[in-house]
Every structure is written in C-alpha cells, then in structure tokens.
Write a structure and sequence with these properties.
2 domains; Nucleoside Triphosphate Pyrophosphohydrolase; single chain; alpha/beta
C-alpha cells in the first residue's frame, strides 16, 4: 500500500469515528469512537509529519455529517492561448487562480470572486471543464478529502493587478509551464483541461 493509499484509509477512519461521535447514544459508544478518532490523529501525524495538536486544531470535530471539501479553479486563456497562473504565497509555486468554495457563493460566484481577488481580472465562467477527485491524481498527501471543480473563464477586463495573497500573476505557454503548486493543480490536469478547450470538447470530465 502506498503512502497516498494509506492516507485515504486514515481519512476514512477519521470520518467514521466522527460520524460515530455525532450519532452515538451511549457514553460507552462515545468513548470507543473517541479512541478511534485519537488513533486516526496519531496515524495522520505519522503520515503528514504534523503534530497531533496542530492537526486537531486544523481539523476540529465536525458538527454535522463530514463531507468532502470543494476547491474551485479557473482556466483563463489569453488571445494567443497562453494560460494564466498565480504564484502562491504559501509555497512560491504556481497554480490556476481559485481556492476553497465559500459558503453563500455559488461555484460560479466563487471563481468570479477568486479571480478578481487574485488577478484583478473580471471573468465570466463559461464551461465546467472538470470535477477532479484528488485521490484519483498524484497530488501530495493532505488530511482533507477534496473535490476540485475547474471552470473555463473568459476574461472581460484586461488589466492584471495581483492580489495581496499571491506573489505574481503571469500567462504561460502550455509547453513552458513553471513549477506548479501540486497540492493545488498538476501539470497533467492543466494539459487535460487545455486539450479539452483546444478540441472543443465541452463534456465535463468527472472522476
């Protein structure tokens, strides 16, 4: 079993423990599920090299049925078909503009807001190109279970003005991509998305 496969099993264990804590009716059951939750954090700490305390702070007990987190990204192409990327302040590497889905915003509203905040551009989402399940792709291990939605976006303004939370914003040729923030996007995913646009394949890719 690979580290990534083991991490997915641990995340499932943690989720089952938290479901048990939410719905258990006796103190005996709660104690057993608390033990399982503690084991899941110990295993997560071992796999991710983060302390148990930091994981518990970052991943508090769910107050409702635990579900996947949703990451929303935008593919923006220049007139000469270069790809707009933002340089992430967290790791100094590049990604498609976007971020976590926000409560109160639709997926389209989220990517419009994220693109404006990160790049200064006003965009119009036109197609949902892909819904990736991160466990199906070779991303670095992380404690969250994540779905990633990627929209094709048309820029309706043209003055790039990088946001406070990114280091740079630039267009890149598909054959000259910079070092990518692989927790957020992979080269293989960008190539898949780009090829869909170039071939006018508008059927959404779904893992």
């Amino acid at each position: 079993m690979t580290t990534t496969e083991l991490l997915e099993e641990i995340k499932q264990l943690k989720s089952l423990a938290e479901i048990g804590l939410l719905y258990s009716k006796t103190e005996y059951d709660k104690e057993r599920y608390q033990e399982l939750q503690g084991i899941s954090f110990k295993l997560l700490s071992h796999i991710t090299n983060h302390s148990i305390q930091s994981l518990q702070e970052a991943l508090p007990l769910q107050k409702d049925y635990p579900t996947a987190k949703v990451d929303i990204r935008g593919l923006i192409l220049s007139p000469d078909k270069k790809i707009l990327l933002a340089k992430e302040s967290a790791d100094g590497k590049w990604s498609l503009p976007g971020g976590w889905a926000d409560i109160g915003y639709s997926p389209k509203e989220t990517i419009i807001k994220e693109c404006k905040e990160e790049t200064g551009l006003d965009v119009q989402p036109t197609k949902l190109l892909a819904v990736f399940d991160k466990k199906m792709h070779p991303h670095p291990p992380q404690p969250f279970y994540v779905y990633k939605m990627v929209f094709l976006c048309e820029a309706i303004s043209f003055n790039i003005n990088k946001g406070f939370d990114v280091l740079d914003v630039q267009y890149f040729h598909i054959d000259q991509l910079p070092e990518l923030s692989e927790d957020r996007i992979l080269k293989s995913q960008i190539e898949l998305l780009y090829n869909k646009v170039m071939t006018a394949d508008w059927q959404t890719y779904v893992d």
